[in-house]
Write a structure and sequence with these properties.
The structure is a single chain. By secondary structure, the chain is mostly beta strands. Helix content is 9%, strand content 32%. It has two helices and ten strands, in the order E-E-E-E-E-E-E-E-E-H-E-H. The protein has a six-stranded antiparallel barrel. The protein is elongated, with a radius of gyration of 20 Å.
Length: 179
C-alpha cells in the first residue's frame, strides 16, 4: 500500500454524467452518506506460499494454501500442477511434507500434511506472503499486506482495496453515520 495507506490514488466515475475525477483514497468519505453500509473481509492473510521439492526427484514445487478441509488436509494450488499427481510427496523445510491425495474441481489439489509440532507455527516460519503478481518487491514487513481490520487468520490473499483504509479514515467514515 501507499504510505500513508489512505494516500493512494482513487478514480471516481460518475455514471450519470460520465465524468471522471482523480482523487485520493482518503476522499472516499466525501462519497459516503449516513446510512451507507460498508462490508469488509476481515480475514488475515497467512504466509500461504510454500517452496519445496518433489520426493524423490528433487524437482522444485510451489504450493499455495487455499482452504483447510480438516484432518491436516488442505485444498491448494501447485506449480507445476502437471507433476503433482495423486500419490506425489512434496517436502518442505522444518520437516513438513505433503502427499497429493486428489485433484479438485477447479484444477487445484487436495493434500495431506505430515509434520512434528504445530502446523501454524511451521507455516509462519517457512511460508511467504502470497503477494499478487503486480507487486514485484518483497514485503519488508508482512503486516504491510494486512488490512487494518484483519482479525482471523485464513486468507491466501488480502482484499487489496482494503489495504488503503487506515484507522483514522474508518473513524471519519463511522462519524459520518456509515455502518
Amino acid at each position: 500500500p501507499a504510505e500513508p495507506r489512505d494516500a493512494a490514488r482513487l478514480m471516481i466515475y460518475d455514471k450519470k454524467t460520465g465524468r471522471t475525477e482523480h482523487r485520493f483514497f482518503y476522499d472516499l468519505v466525501d462519497y459516503l452518506t449516513a446510512g451507507d453500509v460498508l462490508v469488509f473481509n476481515d480475514s488475515k492473510v497467512i504466509p500461504a506460499r510454500l517452496h519445496g521439492q518433489r520426493v524423490p526427484t528433487g524437482g522444485k514445487v510451489e504450493l499455495l494454501l487455499l482452504t483447510p478441509v480438516g484432518g491436516d488436509m488442505w485444498e491448494v494450488l501447485v506449480k507445476p500442477g502437471k507433476k503433482a499427481l495423486p500419490g506425489t510427496v512434496l517436502a518442505f523445510a522444518e520437516g513438513l511434507t505433503a502427499e497429493v491425495v486428489d485433484r479438485t474441481d477447479f484444477g487445484g489439489r487436495l493434500v495431506k500434511f505430515s509434520y512434528d509440532g504445530i502446523f501454524d507455527n511451521i507455516i509462519d516460519k517457512i511460508g511467504e506472503m502470497p503477494l499478487p503478481p503486480y507487486i514485484h518487491e518483497k514485503m519488508k514487513d508482512p503486516n504491510d499486506y494486512q488490512t487494518v481490520y484483519a482479525r482471523e487468520k485464513g486468507s491466501a490473499a488480502a482484499p487489496t482495496a482494503g489495504l488503503h483504509f487506515t484507522d483514522a479514515l474508518l473513524d471519519k467514515i463511522r462519524a459520518k453515520g456509515v455502518e
